């Protein structure tokens, strides 16, 4: 065989080997070089890694946000109720309570009103955080995922309303208007007794002049009037719209804020978180005032609608801005602190997984 024939044979064999070689598939190459800690794991798996630590971050963020905001919220809430029930100026009540808190901090922070407020808002923050963690777990998303879905609204509203309605009932009894029925009945009884004593000089001549039996000890049920069902309904409706404006609306409208007001996504989210709960108070304050008025001036049908509307008009402007001063710390400052702290701590936990 000549050298040319040998060269032609080798060339044909080489061409056949090259043409018949099967290139590696993209999936094989990807699998070969895929990292075990890929940030986009399979959607069929739950992201349960560091779940205990993530729930701990939820608790720490909620408790920190509550501790920073609840002292001021407690004072403003008391001022609003005393304005509606007793007519006390809001500024005067706030000033007095601030001085009392600074003079006796232990008495303030261990008091029933503060404990109720702290339990209310910390539980609300914690519920929202837990829903985000649960959602990111079963959807296999990153640790710092935030969801504005209906599950968060229903859960946070249920927890907030259950505690807030109880808190409002306690606040109304603690700081509400005193009942005047008992002093009036005592004065009438004294007048009747004086008349009988003038007619019957000796006590034995008339049974009404005999010494009365000892009065029974006041029970818990007779300590004050009951909260009307209508007031409970108004409080629930008030809390529903506030929760919706605090946890669900801001993520939905943050991107709609114009750039001249906020240039970065983080700034837009903060503006939405502050403004939405505050603006909602123009709508929810009449519900709050009517619910308090139905409790303070019972029976519910004892006054005309015009009289109750006049009371709401009298207290609307100061109460509305006072409630803004309460809601902005609660769901503006508190909401931002809770969300930002959770995002930072969750990001640190996720660095070891998604690095």
TrEMBL record:
Protein name according to UniProt: Sequence orphan
GO cellular component: mitochondrion
Compositional bias of kind Low complexity: 177-192
Transmembrane region(s): none
Originating organism: Penicillium steckii
Spans annotated as Disordered: 17-47, 177-222
Amino acid composition bias (Polar residues), ranges on this chain: 17-31
InterPro entries per the UniProt record, alphabetical: C365.16-ike
């Amino acid at each position: 065989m000549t050298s040319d024939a040998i060269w032609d044979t080798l060339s044909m064999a080489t061409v056949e080997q090259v043409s018949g070689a099967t290139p590696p598939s993209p999936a094989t190459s990807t699998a070969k070089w895929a990292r075990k800690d890929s940030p986009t794991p399979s959607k069929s798996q739950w992201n349960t890694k560091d779940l205990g630590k993530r729930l701990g971050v939820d608790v720490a963020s909620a408790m920190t946000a509550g501790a920073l905001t609840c002292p001021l919220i407690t004072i403003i809430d008391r001022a609003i109720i005393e304005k509606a029930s007793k007519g006390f100026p809001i500024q005067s009540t706030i000033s007095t309570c601030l001085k009392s808190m600074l003079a006796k901090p232990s008495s303030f922070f261990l008091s029933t009103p503060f404990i109720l407020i702290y339990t209310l808002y910390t539980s609300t923050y914690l519920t929202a955080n837990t829903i985000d963690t649960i959602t990111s777990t079963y959807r296999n998303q990153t640790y710092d995922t935030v969801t504005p879905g209906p599950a968060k609204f229903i859960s946070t509203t249920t927890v907030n309303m259950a505690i807030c309605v109880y808190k409002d009932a306690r606040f109304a009894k603690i700081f509400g208007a005193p009942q005047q029925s008992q002093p009036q009945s005592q004065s009438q009884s004294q007048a009747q007794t004086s008349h009988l004593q003038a007619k019957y000089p000796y006590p034995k001549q008339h049974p009404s002049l005999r010494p009365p039996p000892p009065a029974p000890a006041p029970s818990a049920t007779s300590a004050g009037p009951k909260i009307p069902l209508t007031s409970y309904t108004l409080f629930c409706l008030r809390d529903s719209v506030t929760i919706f404006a605090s946890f669900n609306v801001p993520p939905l409208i943050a991107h709609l804020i114009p750039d001249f007001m906020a240039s970065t996504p983080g700034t837009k989210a903060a503006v939405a978180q502050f403004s939405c709960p505050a603006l909602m108070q123009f709508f929810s304050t009449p519900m709050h005032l009517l619910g308090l008025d139905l409790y303070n001036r019972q029976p519910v049908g004892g006054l005309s609608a015009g009289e109750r509307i006049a009371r709401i008009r009298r207290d609307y402007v100061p109460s509305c801005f006072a409630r803004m001063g309460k809601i902005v710390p609660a769901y503006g400052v508190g909401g931002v602190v809770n969300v930002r702290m959770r995002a930072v701590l969750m990001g640190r936990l996720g660095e070891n997984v998604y690095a």
